[in-house]
Amino acid sequence: MFYIIGLGLSDEKDITLRGLQAVKNSTRVYLEAYTSILMIEKDRLEAFYEKSLILADRDMVETQSDEILRNADVEDICLLVVGDPFGATTHTDIILRARALKIPVRVIHNASIMNAMGACGLQLYNFGQTVSLVFFTETWKPDSFYDRIKENVGLGMHTLVLLDIKVKEQSEENLARGRKIYEPPRYMSIPTAVSQIIETEESRQENVLNPDTTLAIALSRVGGGEEERIIAGTLRELLAHSADAYGQPLHSLVIVGKRLHHLEVDYAEEFAINRETWRNIAKDVYKCALE
């Protein structure tokens, strides 16, 4: 059996009992280490699971899946994934590869940012499309994310914005020369994300994401742990806020939609940089009927 097991969002204890049992019974256990990051060291997982873990980087998962799946038709093999297994298309791909090899697959789910984002107080059924925001460069500033947020805004829906992760990336020069030299890991922060969003709004000039009247909520290390951070405000307020206040990566951002319920406003007010501004914009701009 080939297992893909979600680890949740916080520490080694977030794995489910079913997942832990599968890990203990497996011949080989791989830890996928590039679509997200762990908040703890690998050795803490190994100590808790009483099992050695094999780090599986992007190259291994995407181009060496045959090695991961080796003997999975007669042995139990695990791939551990931070969050939930279906949080990245990579895991869908390896499941399809296993099916093509007639290897039975079992997925064991866990919490991911896709449901844990509810910690900010916005209702999950009021979210529209999730979008990804990549690092801008001097010559590449893709703005397709803007169109998808615009669609959500048009429907009054909230938008979860997933921020870019650069792990085991090669520079253009090293890639061109075929050198296996990798850049240091980079994780997009809330200030960088908001800055890019405002830059795109200024370029597009469609007034979809007005920095002074668009409410947003910054999320960091959501999962109920001590390092969790949630901060709410306008895009302008989030950009001006202390970068240190957002804590360690991973960061995500929620753009608040106009279909905003007063209970959502009340709940998220606890995280607001300026509570008066938060409520006034919710009432005057978002037309939320506050009590």
TrEMBL record:
Its EC number is 2.1.1.314. It holds the Pfam family TP_methylase. GO terms for biological process: methylation; protein histidyl modification to diphthamide. Pathway: Protein modification; peptidyl-diphthamide biosynthesis. Residues 1-238 form the Tetrapyrrole methylase domain. Coiled coil: none annotated. InterPro entries: 4pyrrol_Mease, 4pyrrol_Methylase_sf, 4pyrrole_Mease_sub1, 4pyrrole_Mease_sub2, Dphthn_synthase. Keywords: Methylation, Methyltransferase, S-adenosyl-L-methionine, Transferase. GO terms for molecular function: diphthine methyl ester synthase activity. It catalyses: 2-[(3S)-amino-3-carboxypropyl]-L-histidyl-[translation elongation factor 2] + 4 S-adenosyl-L-methionine = diphthine methyl ester-[translation elongation factor 2] + 4 S-adenosyl-L-homocysteine + 3 H(+). S-adenosyl-L-methionine binds at L9, D84, G87, S112, I113, L163, V222, H251. Homodimer. NCBIfam families: dph5. In the N-terminal section; belongs to the precorrin methyltransferase family. Belongs to the diphthine synthase family. S-adenosyl-L-methionine-dependent methyltransferase that catalyzes four methylations of the modified target histidine residue in translation elongation factor 2 (EF-2), to form an intermediate called diphthine methyl ester. The four successive methylation reactions represent the second step of diphthamide biosynthesis. This is diphthine methyl ester synthase. The lineage of its organism: Eukaryota, Fungi, Dikarya, Basidiomycota, Agaricomycotina.
